[in-house]
Design brief:
By secondary structure, this protein is an alpha+beta fold. The chain folds into 2 domains: 222 residues, Alpha-beta prism (UDP-n-acetylglucosamine1-carboxyvinyl-transferase, Chain); 240 residues, Alpha-beta prism (UDP-n-acetylglucosamine1-carboxyvinyl-transferase, Chain), CATH 3.65.10.10. Helix content is 29%, strand content 22%. Helix 1 runs parallel beside helix 2 and helix 1 runs parallel beside helix 8. The chain is elongated, with a radius of gyration of 23 Å. The two termini are 12 Å apart. Bound molecules: uridine-diphosphate-2(N-acetylglucosaminyl) butyric acid.
């Protein structure tokens, strides 16, 4: 029995038992990992900014809640409150002019302070750390909780801390809380990232936009989401060169704290690029479960590594300028060939598609080795695939071997599903959650996916979109 708790929804899925019947059009939303960074970048502006094609995922809501606690005003355009149906156009406005950067002690009120990132909200979403750069650059101070280990690995923040120190900031860590201050503003610097980091690259790039002098960041991440945010900042006056390459050069605005004339001017709206991970997720799902599926509003060139492997595996994919079609997909999955994966920074195979790709590989013929090079703890979902019958050997915390094909069933051992009761499966993180949904849809039987709120962090209304393609999936609150 699942408990009825709206904060912990489950998905109830009836599997397709290997049939490939899904059909239709999957519309891809804007990239959550770009929109989250644009929301943080709103702090660099002197007026209300408008962000378009923002996906309405739970992580976006968390970032909005953090910004609101810091004093910003956030609104979804097209949203109707009250009794009327809620209409969202994926357009968000963020007004940070209401942020004062004053502390409770300074104002003498009990109000939440305007540079202290809410520890509880931050604990729920690692991406909150990207806010530290813009807050420090604008207000000359920021505090935030030291992130603990998370479900996909240790996820340290040393690159951020070292970068701020190089920019002249003072950093202290007291009772699990980092306090960073740069009352005279940040200075440009030269940094080399010892590890390629998406968040590190974005955060220091944003901080450097308001700093005094030139910053050179080397060994940067090249993800398209970084380019998306950089191009917007450039169109609004920031001097950034090289985003999307391994060296980024920023000439700061030379701002003193309090000088609002040197904040950015929102002369252009931010338009979020399509979510390549969401698109890749639907492509992998379509390869296993769809007869004919159009994945529209995506950017196939951001998915080259994935499309090559699937193509070599035998999946028929038609690539168009802004869409991908999996058509005439009538071959049984066991006729697809296995392949090896080594996750890599962009443009390599994305770690965020590692789990959905492993689900794919359980259904195809042959042996595959999967090496996770980015995070050290990203195979927790393997045990759920094993309860369905997958043949997976964990070689070490970063490497597994899959032998396919396996026809997934509700209960390999009778007790797993408890007779006719649906079998219990768990979402461990956003992407592993999608992988488990994929596995359940492939399988024969009925399944309850617990912790669907983790899937909601990255995929907007997934069950409604899968239902529209013909899947038998319900959200149970
Ligand atoms: N790292 C350090 N020190 C740091 C920062 C990172 O050693 O100060 C290490 C990490 O431990 C990791 C590696 O650098 O081993 C790469 O991590 P990165 O900083 O690139 O990850 P991130 O910025 O925290 C973003 C995405 C993740 C995605 C990774 C890798 C967002 C909000 N998150 O995380 O997305 O997996 O890049 O591509 O952009 C998801 O969407 O489900 C998700 C987890």
């Amino acid at each position: 029995m699942t408990t009825k708790n709206p904060t912990n929804p489950t998905f109830l899925i009836k599997g397709l038992a290997g049939r490939k019947t899904l059909k239709g059009v999957a519309h891809i939303n804007g990239a959550k990992n770009a929109a989250l960074k644009a929301m943080a970048a709103a702090v660099l502006f002197n007026k209300k900014v408008r962000l378009e094609n923002v996906p309405h995922t739970a992580d976006i809501d968390t970032m909005a809640a953090i910004l609101e606690k810091l004093g910003a005003k956030i609104s979804w355009i097209g949203e109707q409150n009250g009794e009327a149906e809620v209409v969202r156009d994926h357009i968000m406005e963020i007004d940070t002019t209401t942020m004062t950067g004053t502390t409770a002690a300074e104002t003498g009120t009990e109000k939440n302070t305007h540079t202290d990132i809410d520890p509880t909200l931050a604990a729920g979403m690692r991406a909150s750390v990207v806010l530290t750069g813009p807050l420090l650059a604008r207000f000359g101070k920021v505090s935030f909780p030291a992130p603990g280990g998370c479900v996909i690995g240790a996820r340290p923040i040393d690159l951020f801390i070292e970068g701020y120190k190089k920019m002249g900031a003072k950093v202290t860590l007291e009772d699990g809380l980092y306090k960073i201050s740069a009352p005279n503003g940040l200075s440009g610097m030269d940094d080399f990232f010892h590890t390629i980091s998406v968040g590190g690259t974005e955060t220091l790039m944003m901080a450097a936009v308001l700093a005094k002098g030139k910053t050179i960041l080397s060994n940067c991440a090249k993800e398209p989401e970084i380019v998306n945010v950089a191009e917007w900042l450039i169109s609004c006056g920031a001097k950034i060169k090289g985003a999307g390459t391994s060296t980024i050069e920023i000439i700061g605005n030379g701002r003193n704290i309090g000088d609002d004339k040197k904040l950015l001017e929102p002369t252009k709206h931010f338009v979020t690029i399509p979510d390549r991970i969401e698109a890749g997720s639907f492509i992998l799902l379509g390869a296993l479960c769809a007869k004919d599926l159009v994945i529209e509003n995506c950017e196939p060139k951001h998915l080259t590594a994935v499309l090559h492997l699937l193509n070599d595996s035998g999946v028929l994919i038609d690539t168009k300028p802004n869409a991908v079609q999996i058509k005439g997909n009538s071959r049984v999955n066991s006729s697809f060939k296995s392949f090896d994966i080594r996750t890599k920074e962009y443009p390599g195979f994305p770690t965020d598609l590692q789990a959905p790709a492993v689900t794919f590989l359980t259904q195809v013929t042959g042996e595959s080795n999967i090496l996770e090079t980015i995070f050290e703890g990203r195979f927790k979902y393997v045990e759920d695939l094993e309860t369905l019958g997958a043949n997976i050997t964990v070689l070490n915390p970063r490497e597994v071997r899959v032998k396919g094909p396996t026809a997934f069933v509700q209960s390999v051992e009778k007790e797993v599903g408890g007779g006719d009761a649906p079998a219990d499966l768990y979402a461990h993180d956003i992407r592993a959650g999608f992988a488990i949904v994929m596995a359940a849809l492939t399988a024969k039987g009925q399944f309850v996916i617990h912790n669907a709120h983790l899937i909601d962090r990255g995929y907007e209304k997934l069950e409604e979109r899968l239902k529209a393609l013909g899947a038998n999936i319900e959200r149970v609150l």
